[in-house]
Every structure is written in structure tokens, then in C-alpha cells.
Amino acid sequence: MSQVIAAPQEWVESVSELQFPAKADQRLQELMDRNTDGNISEAERSELEALVELSETLSLVRVEALQLLGRRPA
User: Fold this and answer.
1) How far apart are CA 12 and CA 8, in angstroms?
2) Close Cβ partners of 54 (under 8 Å, ≥ 6 residues apart)
3) Which of 1, 2, 36, 66 could serve as a FRET partner for 26 with CA atoms 20 to 30 Å apart?
4) Tens-digit pLDDT profile for residues 39-49
5) Is residue 31, in this structure, part of any structural domain at all?
6) Domain limits at 40?
7) 37 is a domain residue
């Protein structure tokens, strides 16, 4: 069930500009490469899954903010 929450436009603007941190993105790429090569441990696989989930969630939140602002993702 979705709820509507009033928020100042500045907050929505800030959310629309969120970015996945560079270090996390670098680690995500490293783990994806290791996974592709078949050289990933179970601990790394769990870390990879968590980073992918976080990245996807951040993207979805950004898209929702952009839609509220009437913009398209770049």
C-alpha cells in the first residue's frame, strides 16, 4: 500500500540527485567481474547481492523523485 507524504520540493530535488558512491560502485564492478570469472567467495557473493539491491533501490527512488518533478532520468 502506497502512502503520499508531503515533502518540500528541495527535498525531492535532493533525492533526484542522489548517486551511488564511487567507492561502492567500484567495489560492485570488481565483484561483478570476479563473479563473471567464477572467482567469487560466498561472502563476496553476499556482498555483491547487497550492493546490487542497494544500487537498484537508489535508482528506483531517484526515478520516483524525477517523476514527481516532471523530469526524465539522464
Assistant:
1) 7
2) 20, 24
3) 66
4) 999 999 999 99
5) yes
6) 21-68
7) yes
